[in-house]
Amino acid sequence: MTILRQPFDRAQDRAQDTARTVLIGLDGATFSVLNALMQDGVMPFLKGFMASGVRAELRSVVPALTPPAWTSLMTGRSPGQHGIFDFFRKESPQSHRIRFLTSRDVGCETIWSLVNQHNMRSTVLNFPLTFPPPPVDGYVVPGGWMPWRQLRLGCHPEGLYDRLKALPGFNPRELAMDMAHEEKALEGCKQDEYEDWIALHIRREQQWFKVLRYLMQEDPTELTAILFDGVDKLQHLCWRFLDLSYGHTVTLPWEQRVRERCLDYFRQLDGLLADIVRLAGPEATVVFASDHGFGPQVRTFFVNAWLEQHAYLAWADGKGPQPSDTQVLGMGQLARHVYLLDWERTKAYAPMPSGNGIHIVRASEQYPHGLPDAEYQSFRDRLIEELLSVTDPKSGVQVVSRVWKREEIFAGPNLELAPDLTLELQDGGLVSILSSEEAVRPRSEPSGTHRPEGILIARGPGLHQGVQLSELSILDVAPLLLYGLGLDIPEDMKGIVPAEAFEPGWLQDRPVRHGPAGRAQTSPAGTGGEIVYTEEDEIELARRLRALGYIE
Length: 552
Ligand SMILES: [Zn+2]
Known about the structure:
By secondary structure, this protein is of the alpha/beta class. It folds into two domains: 9-295 and 455-504, Alkaline Phosphatase, subunit A, CATH 3.40.720.10; 297-448, Gyrase A, domain 2, CATH 3.30.1360. Helices cover 32% and strands 16% of the residues. The chain is built from 19 helices and 19 strands. The strands form five sheets. Strands 1, 2, 5, 6, 7, 8, 15, 16 and 17 form a nine-stranded mixed beta sheet that branches. A four-stranded antiparallel beta sheet has the order 10-11-13-12. Strands 3-4 form a two-stranded antiparallel ribbon. The protein is globular, with a radius of gyration of 23 Å. It starts with 20 loop residues before the first strand and ends in a 5-residue tail after the last helix. The structure holds zinc ion. Zinc ion is lined by residues 27-28, 66, 232, 291-292. Residues 27-28, 66, 232, 291-292 line the site of zinc ion (ZN).
């Protein structure tokens, strides 16, 4: 790789340079939804912004899931490198217990701390895997994925929480996770509760904006990043109200009200985005990005039921977990499969729906009936072949479109902690881990689920105006942000600065520079598993994940 040294160093004349870089994360945002909202006048600001910048589909990682995808965006590195494959990870290579991941498990450096090495600071609001707060020079408020009671502990630096608390109208219960609030809407999907739930998300984004505005006005940093996660949650639970092209018509009065509320969410969000871009100033580089896209899920693949039918899995009680069992989430929820499975007769299983991952039981002292090492490769190959031949009994469609071996997507220092196989389903959906008579069943109504194609919209010095680029990788966002700040790109970053995003001559005058590889985090992945969530917190997190379909 050519290492170029050119006099392009914005850091040097920071005193005169008020330009900043702002990253606005829209969790799960997808052009298939946004384009319609912009066309219909619901998001006029975003429409105008897009016309004055570049846009591209942003390819997520496998699995296209919030924790690995955002971590890839904020590190510029693959899940194998940073070690975040899911919300959870095995406790050790030999173990079949899983635990929630925290910031301590992110195995490589983030852009937040990389900019610190160049005497710049970062503000990081509401990103996953930022609790406990990493040692960043600047501000960190971990948000949507942490219980509100922990917020004081999560704010960095010390004292920040009290400053925020003094802001008029600041409400930590709305800012962070308060399942007592959120679950009201999800229990029976009653019409009025839907509306309340959407309204809560509108208030949540307003709370986050309040924090952002305060910090941008009081003590602006060179890199400012905020994540709005209501987009993802609305699409998960309200897909049929958002995507009218998808067969379902919203006809009843209450359905029309829910749809109107959804549009109101996006209308309000558009207003907040306009305010943030105004606060950033005309010279700022502003990047909108999502971690994955969204689309409808039309059927359910009961992967453990399928494994049982093929005699690769057996339930200890002979019948396995039923849908009715999932109403109660208790302590030890993450280890439920450990006592639900018959380990003498189980060779493969999926512990959670979230990452579509299948774990193979290897023979060991603790699991003497597991698969001997010599049979591992042939067993895995056979399983892949059989999974690819699963078809929807109604339509005849192939259900599993791709099966990844772990070394294909998770190569790196944490490979042994990754699921042995990861499935991609034809409709983009998540598997079910519950017991079922039929392995494949159509859904009565489509629900929203992740798609690999997210969004990137960016505007700033040197960037084209009104240009659509070909697809970019989510790994390209970190280099793009670092380049915008005039910084070197670490050599071990997988992504690149997308040259086609810039006007002719801009990159020639200011060539991309590469610097030394990033440092590993102080507590490397795999060894950093200290407990930071209490049991009560874990139940709260599990409730949130269940509401979105990541836990059953
Ligand atoms: Zn997401």
